[in-house]
Amino acid sequence: MVRVGLTAERLTRAGAELADEVGFDEVTVSALARRFDVKVASLYSHVKGSQDLRTRIALFALAEMADRVADALAGRSGKDALAAFADAYRDYARQHPGRYAAAQLRLDPETAASSAGVRHAQMTRALLRGYDLPEPEQTHAVRMLGSVFHGYISLESGGGFAHTAVDPQVSWSWMVDSLDAMLRARAAS
Amino acid sequence: MVRVGLTAERLTRAGAELADEVGFDEVTVSALARRFDVKVASLYSHVKGSQDLRTRIALFALAEMADRVADALAGRSGKDALAAFADAYRDYARQHPGRYAAAQLRLDPETAASSAGVRHAQMTRALLRGYDLPEPEQTHAVRMLGSVFHGYISLESGGGFAHTAVDPQVSWSWMVDSLDAMLRARAAS
DNA sequence: CCCATTTGCCTAAAGCCATTAGGTATGAAC
DNA sequence: GTTCATACCTAATGGCTTTAGGCAAATGGG
């Protein structure tokens, strides 16, 4: 009985890697046990169960993604910041599709409130400060940016753009440009 | 042995209803058999299996949603059409969350090509004709509209907007307004 | 109208996943 | 070196999926 040295953290990291390889939906307690060459029941000493494992992976991905976005945003402002912000999310999703999917997991309000999710919201607001929108509109804009970027990434990764010849990268840039123009127009009004 | 009269169509419809009640992820061959008070194996005469069932529900939802959107679009143009288009999707997702989720199921390219998915794309293009965009941009705009609306609906249904007091309906209207303005600006340029 | 064939639904069984209960051995601390 | 916590194990239950093979109800040709 060789001790492998499992911990909740190692399981979470391995789960994140597994998610990137086979998809978040296929991340299962059994598959993870197999990967560590350990019996399934052994994992239950470290995580409460399947749901707990998935939640941990989601929180890990949210935090990692927030770090990336924060890095991308550092020292930038205006349209430059907007593009860096957008690319940080899209790049993360392309490099780590499973983790990105994990980050979309519905968390219960309490867990969500203590997650890196709030950093994402804060960074979006910080970004928008550059556009000087009055308060109700700032919230609208936060929601809109979250929607476009998340929606695009989700459709792109789902192969939704595969049937057209137009380069998704070009559409992405066009979209970021358009959003910048739109936000500047709204600020002026 | 009373015959219940199962067919692939009845199973699909019942599956769609079940999805709305318990979520698309919980739609299972077993649950559906239970609902018809029939043994699980009996369903396998009508659908190939779990994946087939889910695909059928997805195709059903895509078609139903396309019908709704087509109705909403009839006789409208410009911003009016844009708002009706957007609302048709959002209303469908709110009335039928499980079906809306089903409609996001990744289909293999062949199935997708013969699904109502193409009608969705066609209607989006038709809608955009009102804005008179040159060709490469039209594709960008199709993608952008799909992204914003899908993204918003997905975040809203996931409770992503629950922590702020601002009415999601107001943000939605603001977003539609902003998109309309943006598209008109792009047409002019 | 009846018999044959189709076919709708069944039982049985195997495989995989999740989860819990309770056992054994290992590594650390005294 | 003995003790004690704990890391990992075996065993067992229950759910979902899928396949194979059987019986009976519907259907239709003679």
UniProtKB/TrEMBL annotation, chains A, B:
Residues 5-65 form the HTH tetR-type domain. Residues 28-47 bind DNA. The keyword Nucleotidyltransferase does not apply. It comes from the Bacteria. One of its GO terms (molecular function) is DNA-binding transcription factor activity. InterPro entries: Homeodomain-like_sf, HTH-type_TetR-like_transc_reg, HTH_TetR, MT1864/Rv1816-like_C, Tet_transcr_reg_TetR-rel_C_sf. Keywords: DNA-binding, Transcription, Transcription regulation. Pfam families: TetR_C_33, TetR_N. This is Transcriptional regulator, TetR family. The lineage of its organism: Bacteria, Bacillati, Actinomycetota, Actinomycetes, Kitasatosporales.
